[in-house]
Design brief:
By secondary structure, this protein is α+β, with helices and mostly antiparallel strands. The protein has two domains: 75 residues, Ubiquitin-like (UB roll); 64 residues, Orthogonal Bundle (DNA polymerase, domain 1). It is built from five helices and five strands, in the order ββαβββαααα. Strands 2-1-5-3-4 form a five-stranded mixed sheet, sandwiched between helices. α2 packs across α5. It binds FE2/S2 (inorganic) cluster (2 copies). One FE2/S2 (inorganic) cluster binds next to loops. The site of one FE2/S2 (inorganic) cluster has 11 residues, from loops.
């Protein structure tokens, strides 16, 4: 059988405020593009099947599972990873609140939790506990028992963003 030639495509995307033009295989996953092509290893890969939320990034402000999205889908989009949440060396309120409230243990889920929570607070600066639980349903944590995560998000509530 003749070997298949890998199809590639040039994509242009903005990641954490910086423009990138990349040639990627058409089947390259966004999580791999971010981690291996752009060196943004803050985004973690857990289940690889869209269940755990560890790989969550923001695409045009909305949380998505980057393990399910092809990199070509990010062409022309604005992506924010956990590295883009902090501004000018200062932690975002969500990041600081996770530290203050002990919202993590092993940390595998934390980048996904942080960007998902940031999207929540951008859309709804003062969510109720039930609204937090519902929004964060797609982000799983096997360490904390979730109470500290909810407290962390409640602690960061009240302001839309530090930007
Ligand atoms: S690694 Fe993407 S949802 Fe689990
Ligand atoms: S802190 Fe370990 S999985 Fe959440």
């Amino acid at each position: 059988m003749a070997s298949e030639k890998t199809m590639t495509r040039t994509i242009r995307l903005r990641v954490n405020g910086k423009e990138h033009s990349l040639e990627v295989p058409s089947r390259r996953l966004l999580v791999d593009c971010l981690r291996y092509d752009l060196g943004l290893t803050g985004t973690k890969e857990g289940c690889s099947v869209g269940v755990c939320g560890a790989c969550t990034v923001l695409m045009d402000g909305q949380p998505i599972s980057s393990c399910l999205a092809l990199a070509v889908f990010a062409d022309g989009k604005e992506i924010v990873t956990v590295e883009g949440i902090a501004r000018e060396g200062k932690l975002d309120r969500v990041q600081q609140s996770f530290i203050d409230h002990g919202g993590f243990q092993c940390g595998s889920c934390t980048p996904g939790m942080v960007v998902t929570a940031r999207a929540l607070l951008d859309a709804n600066p003062n969510p109720s506990q039930d609204e937090i639980k519902e929004w964060m349903l797609g982000n799983l944590c096997r360490c904390t028992g979730y109470y500290q995560i909810i407290e962390s998000i409640q602690g960061a509530a009240g302001e839309a963003s530090d930007a």
